[in-house]
Write a structure and sequence with these properties.
Distance between the termini: 49 Å
Strand order of the largest sheet: 1-2-3-4-7-6-5
Shape: elongated
Largest sheet: 7 strands, antiparallel
Number of helices: 9
Strand content: 5-15%
Structural class: alpha+beta
Number of domains: 2
């Protein structure tokens, strides 16, 4: 499901349910959320309580599904706020006749640092998720939904998105790279087509959409990171060059490359991935082709097994990339 998240939606930090772990809950709760929370924490199946939750959810559903509670929508579905604890996520064609309830007995959230897309419970095909953000105004990557003109998109991209993401700490990007590598090891992928699935909440980046099966459009690679954070305005529009955005884009590119090196993330081997990497360099006004940079980064990985030393050398190398005549390995 591709969801475009608005910049004013309110998510609180999401935790997973497992048979051996408890879920952390906080915030303003509806009566439904209190009952669901209690049942999830106890983690003991009770048919009577499940029937009661189904009835409560039926009564709640029509109140939640209104424009005031809409927090994000996309091609296939939408997300609505229930309260400070929970949101519901439904496909546009989901049936409204609620008959079944289930908890998520096999969550994968514990494996990730930035992924908040797993569900707590399901009522038929409607998923209940913990709110992912702790701030009142999270910012999605790329351009928010609703901007039609290129000048509007470029202005928002530069003055809102880049301003926010370029000041995020290096650790925020390190965590995304680590999760890309973890997803790859699980033979799963994040939706890197829609940058709006990645939000800045405080000083962290959070991924708020479903995981998907990898294919030639979803990249668990450095190319996937630049596609999300540099080369896309939204899921349908490639980013355009903007001389006023070069400085911020270079800042992001540095953090992405350092994050990739820290986690030894694969660069991307397909032609579309290589194209994304070259497009990112062009947007950053760096004339060195990606194949040369990748060769240099591979040399760093071989020459400097100590990670701290390697990252220091890579950071110095990135300093020199703005001078397209400089060749680090010819010194």
């Amino acid at each position: 499901m591709h969801i475009n998240f608005q910049t004013n939606f309110n998510y609180n930090k999401q935790q997973s349910i497992s048979k051996n772990k408890r879920v952390s809950f906080s915030g303003v709760q509806s009566e439904f959320s209190k009952e669901l929370k209690d049942y999830a924490l106890n983690n003991i199946k009770d048919a009577t309580k499940e029937t009661n939750l189904i009835e409560m959810f039926k009564n709640l559903l029509s109140k939640v599904l209104n424009p005031e509670n809409l927090k994000g929508s996309g091609e296939f579905g939408a997300v609505y706020k229930i309260d400070d604890e929970f949101v519901l996520k439904k496909a546009h064609n989901a049936q409204m006749e609620v008959r079944s309830f289930s908890l998520n007995d096999n969550p994968i959230l514990d494996k990730f640092k930035t992924f908040y897309g797993d569900y707590v419970a399901k009522f038929d095909d409607i998923k209940i998720l913990k709110n992912a953000t702790i701030t009142s105004e999270p910012v999605c990557a790329g351009v928010k939904e609703g901007l039609e003109n290129n000048w509007q998109k470029m202005s928002y991209y530069r003055d809102v998105y880049l301003k926010k993401f370029a000041q995020l700490p290096q650790e925020a990007f390190d965590d995304v790279a680590a999760d890309f590598k973890t997803a790859s090891s699980m033979r799963k992928s994040f939706d890197t087509i829609n940058p709006n699935n990645f939000i800045a909440d405080g000083d962290k980046i959070k991924i708020v959409d479903d995981m998907v099966d990898p294919n030639d459009k979803f990249f668990n690679s450095l190319a996937g990171m630049v596609k999300v954070f540099l080369t896309s305005f939204d899921r349908n529009t490639k980013a355009e060059y903007d001389v006023m955005a070069v400085g911020s884009r270079r800042n992001l590119l540095r953090k992405i490359i350092l994050a990739g090196e820290k986690n030894e993330l694969n660069f991307g081997f397909t032609m579309p991935e290589k194209q994304e990497l070259n497009d990112a360099l062009a947007l950053c006004d760096i004339q060195v082709p990606w194949r040369d940079i990748q060769a240099d980064l591979c040399n760093f990985r071989r020459r400097y097994p100590n990670m701290d030393e390697r990252l220091k050398k890579v950071n110095e190398y990135i300093d020199e990339l703005e001078d397209t005549t400089y060749n680090y390995f010819m010194d």
